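Question:
When you can, review this sequence-structure pair and walk me through the tokens.
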Amino acid sequence: MGTSLVAPSLLLLLAGAAGFCRALFSLPLRVSLPAAPGGSPSAPVLLRPASSSRRQQEPLGDTDGLALASDPGGTLNFLAMVDNLQGDSGRGYYLEMLIGTPPQPLNILVDTGSSNFAVAGAPAPDVTSYFNPELSSTYKSQGIDVTVKYTQGSWTGVLGTDVITIPKGINGSYTVNIATILESENFFLPGVKWHGILGLAYDALAKPSSSVETFFDSLVRQAKIPNIFSLQMCGAGLPVSGSGTNGGSLVLGGIEPSLYKGDIWYTPIKEEWYYQVEILKLEVGGQNLELDCREYNADKAIVDSGTTLLRLPQKVFSAVVQAIVRTSLIQEFSSGFWTGSQLACWDKTERPWSFFPKLSIYLRDENSSRSFRISILPQLYIQPILGIGENLQCYRFGISSSTNALVIGATVMEGFYVIFDRAQRRVGFAVSPCAEVGGSPVSEIEGPFTTADVASNCVSSVSFHEPVLWIASYALMSLCGIILLVLIILLLIPPRCQHRYTDNDVVNDESSLVRHRWK
């Protein structure tokens, strides 16, 4: 979820002189990831209706799932959803929601990297507001315990159902599954202004099982909206975890044309659990890293609004850092800056972004023989954190290493309007008008490019989804239990009944290592 790090010494880099400074700072690396219309409320929907499935959810209206126009008097009014988010990349972007009867207002973190909808259900030190089920006449407990663990942080709660209304969302009230969080660890952090999490990924990640209908699946089924949503986060160049909040938009059911410029470029969703995509290559300052494309997708590449940084597999991360060091105008960086334990500080009159190169990510196009690239300028990955005194501004490195995924998090997403077109199994990217610093854009999209220089498939053909991992785990535990039982029986057999090996006996001891890849 996030951790608080203490930096005993911060790297001070000035344009003309060098010095040192000391400060404390909080560096949240994860704000999630690596796992939640009109008329009277519907019946509880804890378990997915037998007649529905992901593949059967057909959108209303255009058969391709796109909704580019909205009816201000109907269920969908996209203009009303503009600027319905607040937050920043350091602590996440959240949406106001009314829960229960009478309604209890809460701010809910928007997370495309998990699938449970959960809210604080009891007082806690870092929770400023919580949902009290006893005060809602429409709340129905299912009595099912649920625990969700993220890359950092976890919570435990109880599943139930209740009605929700989104003041700046689709019109009407709907009954959805909701987990009330009773215990948590490193989930609600100091300074966060949200009180729950809205997981918008697929039901394969839902806890305790995929039979729990997700929040967005409930909206698609009940409100008859197209199976698509889009997201804009406006924090480019602004302080991470500052005292104020930035804006953003979560558009449910379609695409709002005023939130992007130019064309929308789409890449296929490889697997419907996370929003898994296929990365073909990375460039730093226009120079290809020359890595095998499978390195970028080890063991998955996902688009996750709940992750604060751009996270790269260790080998890719090391290559990116080396390339930035080679092309940067400043060579004397402490290793702590790259690992996130130190900040770099400049005089407030200076802008360090000119010292760093552009970073480009190539994604496979819907036409598999083509690709396109999304590029972020240093204003997105060299991120202002805090000021020291009146003269210094400090920055963090907005990229980190990962052991199990490439994660396109807020560091990149703040540069784009991102469309999650579930109906067509694709994720779209377009340049966001709010991705500007000093009046200049800090993100770019270019294409098409040929894919002749990369493999036809950069994603492993074997996908270890969590349900499969659990089945494999239980099978292995059962096998170990049987082996242990046999060993105990052999130990209890009297010596006279045991076979005595002679010199002519041959014993072969073959063992194998089973490697699990966890999300």
